[in-house]
Amino acid sequence: MNFRHRRMEEPEINLIPFIDVLLVVLIFLMLSTTYSRYSELQITLPVADAERLKERPGEILVSVTAEGRYLINHKAIEGRSVELLTAELSAAATAGAGSDSVVILSADALAAHQSVINVLDAARRASLPRLTFATQTNSGTR
Question: Which stretch of DSSP H or E encloses residue 19?
Fold first, then answer.
């Protein structure tokens, strides 16, 4: 038996694979990161000049006031919950063209974003997938 002590080899650290992995991670992060500057974004909203259509039975008009109150087909809704909006939209749809009804959303410029989202959520829950937003022309609203 050979009990002599072997000489310990010094560990060698190879940095080339480590650098390769870091470069791959860096490239992945560069490709998957989005760079956006919202302060430089200049947007001009489109203006619709189409003729105003007469009311059709398949339309459900939903208005959102600046205070966050809702009107469905010019009838004020008492309350602001999504469940109440869903019930009122369902009732308006059954009185109109059913699930083929088009929800026309008209929101005040000062209305809270959450109020508009509540109408969108209520329309989805009432199975009314056809939705459009009212537009503004230079002379007034449509």
Answer: helix 16-32
Task: Say what the pLDDT of residue 41 is.
Answer: 45
Q: Is the pLDDT of residue 136 over 80?
A: no
Phi and psi, residue 43, nearest 5°: -120, 135
Residue percentage of the chain with pLDDT more than 70: 73
Assigned domain for 114 exists: yes
Burial of 119 (0-12, 13-18, 19+ CB in 10 A): buried
Containing domain of residue 108, as a range?
59-133
Model pLDDT for residues 29-69, shown as the tens digit of each residue: 888 877 655 544 455 556 666 665 555 567 888 888 888 88
Domain count, the chain: 1
Rounded distance, CA 102 to CA 97, Å? 9
Residue 100 within a domain: yes
From CA 85, how far away is CA 10, in angstroms rounded?
75
Report which secondary-structure segment, H or E, holds 90: helix 82-95
